[in-house]
Known about the structure:
Elements: H1 29-54, H2 61-73, E1 79-80, H3 82-102, H4 111-114, H5 135-160, H6 166-178, H7 186-215, E2 221-224, E3 232-236, H8 240-250, E4 256-259, H9 270-273, E5 278-281, H10 289-296, E6 300-302, H11 312-315, E7 318-321, E8 325-326, E9 330-332, H12 343-351, E10 362-365, H13 369-374, H14 376-385, E11 390-393, H15 405-413, E12 418-422, E13 437-438, E14 441-442, E15 444-446, H16 453-466, E16 477-482, H17 486-497, E17 504-506, H18 515-525, H19 533-541
The site of FE4-S3 cluster has 16 residues, from helix 17.
Amino acid sequence: MEHKMFCYQCQETAGCKGCTNAGVCGKSAATANLQDMLVYATKGLSEVLMRARNKGMIIPGTCNHLVTENLFVTITNANFDDEKIKERIQKTLEKRDEIRKELSDEFGFSKAALWTMETWEEVSEETGVLATKDEDIRSLRELITYGLKGMSAYLKHANALGWEKEEIDTFLQETLAKMLDEHASVEELTALALKTGEVGVSAMALLDEANTQRYGNPEITKVSIGVRKNPGILVSGHDLRDLEMLLEQTKGTGVDVYTHSEMLPAHYYPAFKKYEHFVGNYGNAWWKQKEEFESFGGPILLTTNCLVPPKDSYKDRLFTTGAVGFTGCKHIEGACGEEKDFSEMIAMAKQCPAPKEIESGEIVGGFAHGQVMALADKIVDAVKSGAIRKFVVMAGCDGRSKKRDYYTEFAKALPKDTVILTAGCAKYKYNKLDLGDIGGIPRVLDAGQCNDSYSLAVIALKLKEVFQLADINELPIVYNIAWYEQKAVIVLLALLSLGVKNIHLGPTLPAFLSPNVAKLLVENFQITGITTVEDDIKALMA
Ligand code: SF4
Ligand code: SF3
């Protein structure tokens, strides 16, 4: 075996080719191989579940959740806990075998549906990415699998709030099973990638419905970025249900709650505004957490990716929950829909000093579809009068690559008659620049988390209706998207399925796109990489 591991699922993969010794993200070869095994076992389980469905068996919600949570665990920067991943593999194989026993025929099952794990240490030729020898088939299989990982993360959040959609789970499992089909052609897989995007839109719509029905429609909100004098708990990740439970349990305890990175948009929801001790956002995007978790001084809760392997200085203050895990950090248990117990964190917070201030002032956000539509008349008038020439969608992820300074420079250099539409942690590259407003409309409109990119699609479709256009690409909206992990992959596939063309994607194109698959995307959707700020602005404003 020439590699200790092989992973190329995120933007920071080694040499823009693949991590083969250890992950640039901090994932060890052992963890990476276990994650491959988990994905492989989940594909096998999905094949068995689909056979059972086709025979008329009812699949319980717990099986659907097992599939989505398994995929979520393998997302970049989610789980580094080998023992937990092993437990999941075992549970998945047990569940698969239990259902297989109920089926009377085993004819035609793939190797994955029959696979028995021999040793944890083995780097298997069978379970890893490189098991698919044809470069283009591998590329499409991985593009789809990463899209499904992103979709699973969003589904999991909707499920946590009690929202379920059997059609989405069925599609997910059917598609995972299809990844084992030796006969699937490039054409079939290309169509399936687009279909994945289409179902991704439904998954994001489901989450949007769950979030807005439960917590109300996000509204324009000023969020403090300073600190108060009380001890605090910092919450990161994307899971609003976890945050809600924590806010309830910290009520009246004298402990404040702050958001970090992708949890910032929680402040935009009316339901969370009633908590007087929910005071603001501390710090920036995920990759700054080493310094920011240290200076925060109190306990930190990671509800989803992105976790950076912690420094010893704050490791004992770091708690994980849900799909996240790190060996040696306390994990707060609780299955989908169950109440979690944060008392240990609250007790710890009371013993810690108040957070150290690193910034002061406020930032503004809350421009999800409901709020933007409430301002529709003003926005349409501004477009018609020429006050707003273009909207520039700059959604996606932030990351530690120096190349990403491009996005700060790009935002600064954009003409003053343009408005940035954003979602995801990409916003931290320009949300504190004070770019001003156009007739009262801020020049950076933050819709929320990466899943709220759905809001940007809804806004585009509504504007297409208002302006009576035949094609979404006729709108004065251009796309310069930054990606990092697999949630951005489902966002990208979702935009492609809606017919959006000419997307600029950076800071580098995904390593998992083979030259032929990349060509296919360029020819059909005119996707392009980024170049220089000056040239890209010229191209996008043309
Ligand atoms: Fe490498 Fe990214 Fe995979 Fe981590 S997730 S091992 S950085 S490709
Ligand atoms: Fe960020 Fe990880 Fe992608 Fe939700 S927190 S956008 S990178």
